[in-house]
Write a structure and sequence with these properties.
By secondary structure, the protein is α/β, with parallel strands linked by helices. The protein is built from twelve helices and 15 strands. Helix 7 runs parallel beside helix 8.
């Protein structure tokens, strides 16, 4: 008996849970913290500035969602302890992580970290949350315009573990879908991302804090097919392998998530190109200091890593930064409006 087709977001959630439980994701891809230690260091200093902006509370939670190997937080804490040790003393470090395998790796890198499976498990206290390439892995639903109606895509798993896509009437709840679009238009929507942002924004209205997310996607997204998969370091068809054999991600719809955050009462900033954001925080100056006095080949590697994170032809424009803050807080570092001469 053939199993009933599975909604795409449920398939994606199941596939990614299996993937992260059984694979080393860093054998398939390299994230910004693994490219340069300066990335985590400047984000740590961003968090320290945020702590000062919210009044330097005596106790605060510094959390990371989807912390990978723990590299970002380890580098962030190193910079914080050097520059603003009072923030390090005030901070309880927490990782939002569900994979037991990754938790073990993270505990080795950041032994003082405590773990939560979800945002709701973070203790009630002022909060600064960091998330790098976290939202892109949250599952999406996908809708296709067919003739005069929208239909939802479902996944039908085959006996060999591969899958095919089919369309069926939409399961409620579903997002507002425009009527005046061409046949074949695809609309992606991540209920998991919007739920996360809604809960986070609600928390920021009750308790002082801020959050920073860096991820990839256009400034305004949501339309088109952006689902992609990596297996053994190479792109593959997202449905060609059994669930859990590849890492599935999709572009982040920054503009829609910011609208959700603002509707829930938080301030939202961005999206800002990652290159502009990191340069404004001094990432390239930090790379220069790290390279100073090193052998020529090592110095080139350090500077090339910074350029990979910031230049448009690499990660500088595809990746974006967005921030959420409690109402009444000043604009967070890196999100200040550009001077008029820089806006052309």
């Amino acid at each position: 008996m053939t199993a009933r087709p599975e909604r795409l977001d449920r398939f994606m959630a199941r596939a990614n849970a299996a993937y992260y439980a059984t694979h080393d994701p860093f054998a398939d891809f390299t994230t910004a913290p693994e490219i340069s230690q300066a990335f985590g260091e400047v984000l740590g200093l961003w968090a320290a500035m945020g702590w000062q902006q919210i009044g330097a509370p005596a106790r605060i939670v510094l959390a990371e969602a989807g912390p990978g190997r723990g590299t970002l937080m380890a580098d962030a804490l190193s910079a914080i302890r050097r520059a603003i040790p009072a923030f390090a003393d005030a901070a309880t470090i927490m990782f939002i992580e569900t994979s037991p395998r990754l938790r073990a790796i993270q505990a080795q890198r950041v032994p003082e970290a405590r773990f939560a499976a979800d945002l709701d498990e973070i203790p009630d206290a002022p909060l600064i949350l960091l998330g790098n390439e976290f939202l892109d892995a949250l599952p999406i639903r996908r809708f296709v315009r067919q003739k005069v109606e929208w239909r939802e895509q479902f996944v039908e798993v085959q006996p060999d573990g591969s899958a095919t896509l089919t369309t069926d009437p939409m399961e409620p709840p579903f997002p507002c879908l425009p009527d005046k679009v061409a046949e074949g238009t695809i609309r992606e929507w991540s209920e998991a991302s919007h739920d996360t942002i809604t809960r986070l924004a609600g928390r920021l209205t009750r308790q002082s804090g801020m959050a920073l997310f860096l991820d990839y996607g256009p400034a305004q997204s949501g339309f088109g097919d952006s689902l992609q998969a990596l297996a053994q370091g190479v792109p593959v068809d997202p449905f060609s392998l059994p669930a859990g054999a590849a890492d599935l991600t999709a572009h982040v719809d920054f503009s829609a998530l910011l609208d959700t955050a603002r509707s829930a009462g938080a301030n939202g900033y961005g999206p800002v190109a990652q290159g502009r954001f990191l340069v404004s925080l001094g990432l390239m100056q930090r790379c220069q200091r790290l390279a100073s006095g090193k052998p020529a080949a090592m110095a080139r590697r350090i500077m090339n890593a910074g350029q990979r994170l910031t230049q448009a032809e690499y990660m500088g424009t595809l990746f974006k930064a967005m921030a959420l803050t409690s109402p009444g807080l000043p604009v967070p570092a890196g999100f200040e409006p550009l001077p008029m001469r820089d806006m052309t």
